[in-house]
Amino acid sequence: MGRLADKVVIITGAAMGQGAEEARMFAKEGAKIVATDLQIDQLHAIVQEIKDNGGEAIGVKHNVASEEDWKNVVAQAVEHFGRVNVLVNNAGITTAQGFDQFDMAGWNKILEINLTGTMLGMQAVVPEMRKLGSGSIVNISSIAGLVAMSGTNGYSASKGAVTLISKTAAMELAKDSIRVNSVHPGVIMTPMVEKAVTEEAMKGLKAGTLLPRMGRPEDIAYGVLYLASDESAFVTGTQLVIDGGWTAR
Ligand SMILES: NC(=O)c1ccc[n+]([C@@H]2O[C@H](COP(=O)([O-])OP(=O)(O)OC[C@H]3O[C@@H](n4cnc5c(N)ncnc54)[C@H](O)[C@@H]3O)[C@@H](O)[C@H]2O)c1
């Protein structure tokens, strides 16, 4: 308890999956949560759950691809809690878009949400973090942002770019004591995977994971918690891989 005491944490895509788990876990660790998502009803249910358990949280409707929405999210964080200490750029989408299924609209959409959304988030919070003289930004990439995965061109492009914009931001923001790191989940059982992956593809994903079980949202949340907290005060520009061994071979 208390590993994020008094930290104001913005988590995008917090209505379900990993983002929801991070919101729950971080509130238990003393953070004040600004949970954001497009799916407002589900988001409010998570916020209510946190409050019912004695935590502090607000929910803000948010499309991460909108610069205007980002301004509103930061304004709400400052209005309710006075500052922004941590940003978790977690919201994301996936598409099964192999080389032969390429279409321009799908390509643009995934880049807009996964990549541009991450950049807009960093741009939006940095002025507030500079006022504090510190901050931690955690960008959720993927193992697909590190190694090749078949049939995911747009997703790989977006996550590969998230890996590298995290490092360039770490370089530029280190002088302000703002840390930027990326997290690379392997296969994690969330609505994203349950919706997108066929039974046949799941066999392949299981085979690629060395440990004898699939990942769970809390496996990622524990890693993000470390990077969000002051325990990682000397960690920036790094890639935290949490993949059950997928990328070991
Ligand atoms: N689940 C996995 O196996 C896996 C693996 C590697 C990386 N990731 C990454 O982890 C992150 C979380 O994934 P998840 O599995 O929890 O997904 P999920 O689909 O379960 O949840 C994603 C959340 O993001 C929200 N969202 C989508 N588009 C949005 C937008 N434009 N603006 C605001 N919110 C939006 C959704 O409403 C949803 O609540 C994503 O960035 C994903 O790419 C997931």
Features:
single chain, 249 residues, alpha/beta, 7-stranded parallel β-sheet, 8 helices, 7 strands, 16% strand, binds nicotinamide-adenine-dinucleotide
Give a concise summary:
This protein is of the alpha/beta class. The protein contains eight helices and seven strands, in the order βαβαβαβαβαβαααβ. It is globular.
Helix content: 40-55%
- Tell me the number of strands: 7
Bound ligands, named by name, code or SMILES: nicotinamide-adenine-dinucleotide
Strand order of the largest sheet: 3-2-1-4-5-6-7
What's the pLDDT, averaged over the residues? 97
Portion in strands: 15-25%
Radius of gyration: 17 Å
Order of helices and strands: EHEHEHEHEHEHHHE
Note the gap between the termini: 36 Å
Briefly note the structural class of the backbone: alpha/beta
Principal-axis shape: globular
How many helices in DSSP terms?
8
Main β sheet profile: 7 strands, parallel
Residue stretches low in confidence (pLDDT < 50, at least 5 long) are none
Describe this structure in words.
The chain is α/β, with parallel strands linked by helices and 249 residues long. The model has no long low-confidence stretch (mean pLDDT 97). The chain is globular and about 50 Å long. It is built from eight helices and seven strands. The chain has a seven-stranded parallel beta sheet with strand order 3-2-1-4-5-6-7, with helices on both faces. It binds nicotinamide-adenine-dinucleotide.
